[in-house]
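Archive record:
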Amino acid sequence: MLPAVFVGTIETGSVDRTILEPSLTTRLGLFDWLQLEAIFPWRYSNERHSLTNEEITIDDTAFGDIEAGLSAQLMKEKGPWPALVGAVRVRTTTGQDLFDIDSPDELPTGSGFWGVRGILSAIKVRDPIVIFGNIGYTYNIPRTGDFGFPQPAEDVEIDPGDTIEWGLGFAYAISPEISLNMQYVHRLSVRSDMKDSGTLPEEQEGKLPGTYQNVPELKLGTVWNFKKNRFIDFSVSIGLSEDAPDVTVQIGMPFRF
């Protein structure tokens, strides 16, 4: 056996990320079976980089990616068949993305890529239980530009990869005002791909390592209908893999007009 020789500095570190994203979601009923929706997110991001000899904290606040879409009831529940609801949503690039950052004190608040998401949901009522499941697919549109990452290059095309998702859960009414729900959600994102017109070294083209995402989550929640047409939706999601967020807390309070 040969002795190992290390030249230079060896450091270990970790990154803790906290994101707070208040958003305004608006929905407009066009018909009794069709509605239009739009989401306007605002994102606060905090990253704490813990290195061997120091700790660096970065904060940033900005608009996220605005989304808009349509959802429609494709089939009503009848006999043994569940109700079917389909939805299509478009994600814009209004948020600050990784390629817009000019300072080490800034953080991305958007994906940087347009996306189109389609989802099909099935809902079956068996009073006092509602069973639901869904399957969806997101097409992230490739982007071509003159990027400075990983090194200055022209006409680089980055394909962020698509995402497939599915979920299954149920809601249980424990009283006329309160219900409990549980859902398993799983998302898989394929590796990003990068290619250009010849300005990048050959070894830097192709699939980008570390961009494959396997995100399973268990979501627990409750809905409290505290007033007519007023209710609070509270949920906690627990990540079940290294790619998933450790904990996600969501609070919603719809207002109907």
User: Anything to note?
Assistant: Residues 129 and 172 are 5 Å apart (CA to CA). Residues 113-252 form one domain. The radius of gyration is 22 Å. The chain has a mean pLDDT of 85.
